[in-house]
Here is the input.
Amino acid sequence: MSVRIRRVLGAWVVMTLALTGLVALPAPARAAAAPVCALACDTLDPSKAARETFPVPDRNINGRILRLHVSEPDNMAWASIDDAVPGDAVWLDRSWDRGATWEGLLGKASVPGTWTGTRTLMYNIGDPVGHRRGWIRACGDANAVTCTDWFHPAVCDGSACDGADPATASGDDRPVPATTLFGRTISLHMDHSTGMAWGVVENGGAGDEIWLDRSWDGGATWPEGSSLGRTGVPSGRTTTRTDMYATRDPRGLLYGGAVRACGREAAHQEGSCTAWARPVPTRARAAADALMASYHTNEGWWRSSWWNSAVAITALMDFAERTGRHD
Here is the structure.
């Protein structure tokens, strides 16, 4: 029997066994996560971190200590495992949709011989170029796989942070028309001076819901910003509102966020949303946010051209000088 015929028959036998479940075909390789760049790119050495905090509790894996480290000025994180033995491993998971899916095994490192611990390199928590806010956690394998809780930085614009009470707002504007659903009125409210927004449902009943969606790319996507402040109308009332949420995240280098108010009547699954809107405290401030939203922080320019970059940076310098804002 020729070599060619033996190969054909061998392939036929393997395929037949695979189809009957006796032999597993190789699984397709998982594509590696694309590197994220902000002030620095993924895989920065932790020795260069500007600060070190431990925002979530450690995990114990068979006597090993798994820890998540975060440098808030860099908006980056790394993971470590201690009291370990050679072969134990540690890595990061990063999610762009609040933990529903994630990029796994980022920076995976194994404990070398004679060592009792190791750490990953640093990875960005946010992606300003891709207009995404991330969640991150540390994971380890020491004869069992365990992960820490997810960590996600709070969104704050100066002293105004997500979750603030609308009663503290200094202004109340409705930037877009309200929407109606089964007789309910769903409206978006903004305090333009702080860039904070909240939603209100009126003429409702117990169990009706109201929430905000927040997008960093003009409403194209909002995987990390859906159902913010979701709350229901209490029994005996006809109206309720969400907490306030920021539309700028200077620490995460995200600007020009858009929000909309959405609601659902208790007896139906379908909802209704207002149009997307951005706060406009002044036309100059809105223009500055729009410029910053398209700035490539790791490259230090606007990609359209060097000439346009020079004009943009001059405009932002003039804005900062005249307003005193440097965020």
Observations:
- The chain has three domains: 46-153, 157-273, 295-323.
- Confidence is low (pLDDT under 50) at residues 1-31.
